[in-house]
Write a structure and sequence with these properties.
The chain is of the alpha/beta class. The protein contains seven helices and eight strands.
């Protein structure tokens, strides 16, 4: 699109994660599982809405950058400036465009993590309520919804392992500490946090997505 003269930028939902200190406070106030980034409720949706509004203006906009190796957002001085107004904004992320589950679907845990660490359903109900709230305002401006369609939840685990491997290799090239990266066992627990909503997305979103892209296996 840029080669055709279009002004294009990418806003990643991951770059809207709440900082570590904010998530730790949320974990103390609501549920310990909210210390881990990723699910609805762990993003700065207010910031996302502000950025979408600014990107409709005529002045350059600085987009946030989240450093997963540090598990924290970089200071504003390190944010990436993009021109405005844009012709196309690609807003990408695991749960972009997702809709909340019906209340009865939240009753039974979907895996061992929910059964053992969220037996009363406090965490999953908080996540679902967050998704039903301001996240829907964040997703409302989408002109087209494109779903990268995994063959199943098992493929998500393989993807995430590949992503972690690439992160570890990049950190090694840069001479940075790789201690914060996850091994296979840690990764299995991590993706369990996303199983419920991922399965819901794969079952519900294909019927309403504007484009489906069948994903390759890894």
């Amino acid at each position: 699109m840029e080669a055709r003269g279009a002004r294009v930028a990418v806003l990643a939902l991951d770059d809207l994660y709440l900082g570590r200190a904010e998530r730790m406070a949320l974990a103390r106030r609501v549920h310990p599982l909210l210390a881990t980034r990723g699910v609805p409720g762990t993003h700065d949706v207010t910031l996302g809405l502000e950025l979408l509004a600014r990107l409709r203006g005529a002045r350059p906009v600085a987009l946030p950058v989240f450093d997963k190796a540090r598990d924290d957002r970089l200071p504003e001085a390190a944010w990436q400036s993009v021109p405005a107004p844009l012709d196309v904004l690609l807003f990408e992320g695991w749960c972009v465009g997702a809709r909340p589950q019906a209340e009865p679907a939240l009753i039974e845990p979907v895996n061992a993590l929910e059964r053992e660490e969220d037996p009363q359903g406090i965490w999953r109900r908080y996540v679902n309520a967050a998704l039903a709230g301001d996240y829907q305002r964040l997703f409302a401006p989408l002109d087209e919804l494109v779903l990268l369609q995994a063959a199943g939840f098992e493929q998500v685990y393989a993807w995430r392992l590949e992503q972690e491997r690439k992160l570890r290799e990049r950190l090694q090239r840069e001479g940075r500490d790789v201690a914060a990266t996850l091994d296979a066992a840690q990764m299995a627990r991590f993706v369990s946090l996303f199983e419920r909503l991922t399965r819901h997305i794969l079952a519900e979103m294909p019927q309403r997505a504007d484009e489906l892209i069948a994903a390759r296996r890894v």
